[in-house]
Amino acid sequence: MFLPKYLHTFTGKFTGILLDIDDKILFQDIIPLNSGGSYKLLFDMFYHIRQLKYVRQSHLKQINPRYSKICAINKLNKLVEKEFLENTYDDVYIATDKVLPKIKKNGYNIKLLPKESKGQGEINQLNNTEVFIQALNLPDYKTLLYPNFDYIEPDALLVRIKDNAYKLEFLEIEASKSNWPEWLENKRTNYLKLANDPQVYSYWKAQCTYLKLEAPDIKDFKFSVSIIGKIKKDFETGFNFMDNLNG
């Protein structure tokens, strides 16, 4: 199961922004063009909110300090009024499906994004967001994906790129619970099962098309699992326990 090194190549990146008069009118009260705001900044923020599922207003400044130009609560609430965001409670926001045509038009790959979130952004979901932000700041970060297999739904799949090669790391973000050892043992069993299950390879091969990555032969396909929390267990090679996601 363990992927000992980065494999295969990566190509391609989109940098342009396309606007029409409707966009300029629609967002003119959100973007301070004269003081560092931009349409690209707004679309980047839409992408990140959708990608991370549940985001506090304070998270946005951690993701990109420049988002402070456009993420004041009153601006976010204007985006709620325009139905691009939903305010689930307090300062927690999700991105609705209405953002997708806007960001797709500007080259963002919406096939990599999760479905519209249906929860409220409760404590476990927000704990996940904290770790996802750590992932964004890794020097070899490429993207986060959210696969769901028949018998296990990882919190995320982290794709890491280095020297034109990549590796795959499933993330399990764990908070203390009464049956923690049994819970983790069940996770271990299911990941060992997944390592020999063709559906995980089929899933990854499909994602390679969207990411413009070379898919490995099935015999070379590997992944690792990072379990992030305050517990440590002595699992076999391929499982990593840590307090925080790190390089």
What does this entry look like structurally?
With 247 residues, the protein is an alpha/beta fold. The chain has two domains: 21-106, Arc Repressor Mutant, subunit A, CATH 1.10.10; 139-242, no CATH class. The protein contains eight helices and eight strands. The protein has helices at residues 21-26, 39-52, 57-63, 73-81, 99-105, 123-136, 180-195, 198-211, and strands at residues 55-56, 85-89, 92-95, 141-145, 156-162, 165-173, 224-228, 239-242. The chain has a five-stranded mixed beta sheet with strand order 4-5-6-7-8. Strand 5 (156-162) and strand 6 form a beta hairpin. Helix 2 crosses helix 5 (99-105). The chain is globular. The two termini are 20 Å apart.
Descriptors:
single chain, 247 residues, alpha/beta, Arc Repressor Mutant, subunit A, five-stranded mixed β-sheet, three-stranded antiparallel β-sheet, 8 helices, disordered N terminus
**Could you tell me the mean pLDDT?**
89
Number of helical runs? Answer: 8
Q: From the helix content, strand content and strand pairing, which structural class follows?
A: alpha/beta
Return residue spans where pLDDT drops below 50 for at least 5 consecutive residues: 2-15
How are the secondary structure elements laid out?
Elements: H1 21-26, H2 39-52, E1 55-56, H3 57-63, H4 73-81, E2 85-89, E3 92-95, H5 99-105, H6 123-136, E4 141-145, E5 156-162, E6 165-173, H7 180-195, H8 198-211, E7 224-228, E8 239-242
Parallel strand pairs: 6-7, 7-8
Antiparallel strand pairs: 1-3, 2-3, 4-5, 5-6
